[in-house]
Amino acid sequence: MEGAGVLEAPFWARGLRVAGVDEAGRGAWAGPLVVGAVILPVLPSASNPLGAYPFRDSKALSPGARKRLAEEVKRVALAWGIGVAEVEEVDRLGVLEATHLAAARALAGLEAEALVTDYLFLKTPLPILSPPRAEEQSPSVAAASILAKVHRDLLMEELDRLYPGYGFARHKGYGTREHQEALRLLGPSPVHRKSFRPVAQGLLLSPD
User: Fold this and answer.
1) Inter-residue long-range contacts of 156-161, CB under 8 Å, 24+ positions, other chains counted
2) Is 118 annotated as a binding residue?
3) What cofactors does the UniProt entry give for this protein (predicted)?
């Protein structure tokens, strides 16, 4: 079987277009939630199935390596997409539904026939595999994680310019000590997720 040993293998064996799906920013206190989706060509060899593509979990890569590999993903993919759920949608729908919405936007137009996700149980009629740590067993999911992370990091760097003082370019909206201190001093910005408890507590303490 071509690509034996990867999560895509049983779908590839049936001749299906498989999209890997992964998200970035699900647990952040600020900024959008981003989902990447990638359809890769069938791996050409079963001898080293994961080595045929250089893609790995985005969290294990340096920012520079992620940017380089994001361009490589776009070059080799049969199709790719990025979906964004804005802060207002995360607050209104909740994180899970906002993730589903962003995933639907990422997959729109890709003509995927099967899905592999990183423990993300999407509402879909397509056959789907959703094991934990899927990026370690699926080059498509690893590629999707890279696209999602790089795109979201760029958005957070732009938000850092629009809302200086919070350190968005450094912590990307996650709950670091620096971010906590900025919330205490400045109160929440318009791009903070006000449905999240640490931010809601910051609202109570926000300056007049």
Assistant:
1) 156/31, 159/30, 159/31, 159/191
2) yes
3) Mn(2+); Mg(2+)
